[in-house]
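URGENT: need a sanity check before tomorrow's submission.

F., can you look over the PKD domain-containing protein record below? I want to be sure the sequence and structure line up before it goes out.
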Amino acid sequence: MGAPTVGTDTSESPPPPPPPANCSPNNLTLCAGDPAAPQEEPAAPIVVTLRDIASFRPATPGNGMEPGGWAVVGLPANFVAAASVEVVSGTLLGQPADVRFTPVGYRWSHSDGGIVESGSPGATWDALGQREFSPTPTSHVYVAPGEYTAELEVALRAEYRFAGSPWRSIAGTLAVTGPPQRVLVGEFDTVLTRGDCIADPSGPGC
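Structure tokens as predicted:
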């Protein structure tokens, strides 16, 4: 018996499948593979809403005025809000995240029916370089004596970010309210005097 010999497979490999009939240099996608093969769906972008950030609580805005807590009939009382950009940390969609709140609008609702809206929080007369009882963009004039309230609402724009990511905007604005400001409004009469009524209480006009 002779030594075994190693045979070789002389059969040819099956030819590759023909390209799609509509394959052409102008349709390279079809040339690259089977157009009927399932394609992977792109990942849907994350959409964060104001409801998703409900656990991120911005600070309550301050609701101040001058003169402090009182006003004069027919003269402007100046209202000033205290609100600023604030970053609050927490968990968003199961991940550590930051939410940044930026004030974009201010609205004072007065119990006499007056509404004052402004894009700024207002400023004191001193900061504005104005005399006391001067009109300002956030002032209000009461026309009758009595006790009133002024309620402040601040509109906040919200943005979020995960660790290392840029800030991304959230559609809409969030409204937060400050404590109501009590305002006692009275009438004041001016009287002409000849001198200092403290030094001379019995003087004319005192």
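My own read: Residues 88 and 99 are 5 Å apart (CA to CA). The radius of gyration is 37 Å. If you see anything odd, call me.
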